[in-house]
Amino acid sequence: MSTLVRPRTGIVIAGVCAAIANRFGWNVTLVRLLTILSVFIPGPQVIFYIIAWVLIPKEGTARA
User: Fold this and answer.
1) Is 32 exposed, middle or buried (0-12, 13-18, 19+ CB in 10 A)?
2) With CB atoms counted within 10 Å of each terminal CB, which end of the chain scores lower, N or C?
3) Does residue 49 lie within any of the structural domains?
4) Host domain of residue 54
5) For each of the chain's 64 residues, which pLDDT tens digit applies?
6) Which pTM was predicted?
């Protein structure tokens, strides 16, 4: 397993799904599909996505 970072390439919106897929060795298309499908279930998924966007560092940046 690699570290949790948003990649610079292969991203669609913010790279959150790509970061999660790369971290756990999953298929990025499957993670994106599950993320889209989860939006139709009541809950705070969009808020969690935005929080992950802010907290997961971009690849190549130092985290203080």
Assistant:
1) middle
2) C
3) yes
4) 1-59
5) 678 999 988 889 999 999 999 999 999 999 999 999 999 999 999 999 999 999 999 988 756 5
6) 0.83
